[in-house]
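Hi, here's the filled form for the chain we discussed.

Project: internal
Contact: R.S.
Residues: 117
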Amino acid sequence: MLAEAAPSRPCGQERLHDLLLSEADDGPLRTDLLAALRRGARIAIWITGPAKDLTRFHLRVDQMTEEAGPAAEALAAAGASITLARVEDADRQYLVVLPPDGRACIARGAKDAPPRA
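And the returned structure, exactly as it came back:
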């Protein structure tokens, strides 16, 4: 009975889904990512921290084949802190760059794509 009375907390996929509905421009990448999150795509990382460190260790923009430029620009324009999320679906990965004072940018690439030259 106590478990039924306890308030529920949305899972990571639900929280990122809702954030993208309000913070990302409508378009095909957002639509695809929202669908992937509804299917239960894995959030490999969702982290906020110093933009310089996150770029060095977690960005993986070189593996993105669609909209990599805008995502990299959003990161470069960020101040000291930025939020990054990387979502892995069956055969695709998505990179979400969430600047503290701007719109979310979404990039997409093959899940296990080698870095671009």
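Let me know if anything looks off before we file it.
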